[in-house]
Amino acid sequence: MRSSDYSPLYRTIVGFDRLANLIDAASGGDAGAGYPPYNIEQTGEDAYRIDLAVAGFGQDEIELEVRDNVLTISGRKEPNDEGRTYLHRGIAERAFERRFHLADHVVVKGARLENGLLSVELAREVPEALKPRKIAIESAGGGKLIDSKKAA
Fold first, then answer.
1. CATH number where 112 lies
2. What global pTM score does this model have?
């Protein structure tokens, strides 16, 4: 496994302690990378949707959890093979767990299971206190106050 040195990044960014961890997690292989298949779609300027193909799973067999900006979607299927003899078994009903790292201020708005497709709606909701704002500059000699609207 390659080791990367991200120390030059820390000279120009402040407060992104999770950056190296996110890059390492993204570059590291995912053991079950192909199951279940999924799409990530941007549905608006600050809106996203994750669609997972979870055919065969019921609503009570799927769990969604958000912790520390990580959305975890897992499915557990109870085996129901009693009295069945399969000649071919191609439908994957195995347990799964998918993790999606969410950016700051991205929240899960809801989830819907329809026709074997789990859709998870996400939105970026930046608090007013964190949105960019203009700062007025005062003169040290008690001079004019620069209007933030005219300064732009």
1. 2.60.40.790
2. 0.67
